[in-house]
Amino acid sequence: MAYAIVHHFPNGTQEQYENTLKAVHFEEGESLPPGQVLHIAGVTEDDGWIVVAVHEDKESWESFRDGTLGPGLQSASDSLEGPPNELAFEVKRQQQA
């Protein structure tokens, strides 16, 4: 079952987000990491940054978190500072336009 993660970084910036992507994710135009089916991000009303990712399942998320995200954030410079506020849930319905 698909698994969604929402991360809110209260004081995050677009520059920090882009630096984070370079360290843990992908360059613009490249495909998503294995198991990830959706990635969206943007600025929030409180001048923070939010990242939403959907993985094929919880195991895919945990593998990405433990093998890529965690180590990458430790080595990244001027990246999003954590830990973020996190909300995670199993996706019960997914609909596309």
Short description:
This protein is α+β, with helices and mostly antiparallel strands and 97 residues long. It has 2 helices and 4 strands.
What do you see in this structure?
This protein has 97 residues and is of the alpha+beta class. The chain has two helices and four strands; from the N terminus they run βαββαβ. It has helices at residues 14-24, 58-75, and strands at 3-9, 36-43, 49-55, 85-90.
Keywords:
single chain, 97 residues, 30% helix, globular
Mind sketching the topology for me?
Elements (H helix, E strand, L loop, with lengths): L2 E7 L4 H11 L11 E8 L5 E7 L2 H18 L9 E6 L7
Antiparallel strand pairs: 1-3, 1-4, 2-3
How many angstroms separate the termini? 20 Å
Average pLDDT, rounded to a whole number, is 89
What percent of residues adopt helix (DSSP H or I)? 25-40%
> For the report, how would you describe the main beta sheet?
4 strands, antiparallel
**Count the strands?**
4
- Helix and strand pattern: EHEEHE
Residue runs with pLDDT of under 50 for 5 or more positions: none
Number of helices: 2
What radius of gyration results from the CA coordinates? 13 Å
Taking strands numbered 1, 2, ... along the chain, how are they ordered across the largest sheet? 2-3-1-4
So what's the overall shape?
globular
Structural class: alpha+beta
The percentage of residues in β strands lies in 25-35%
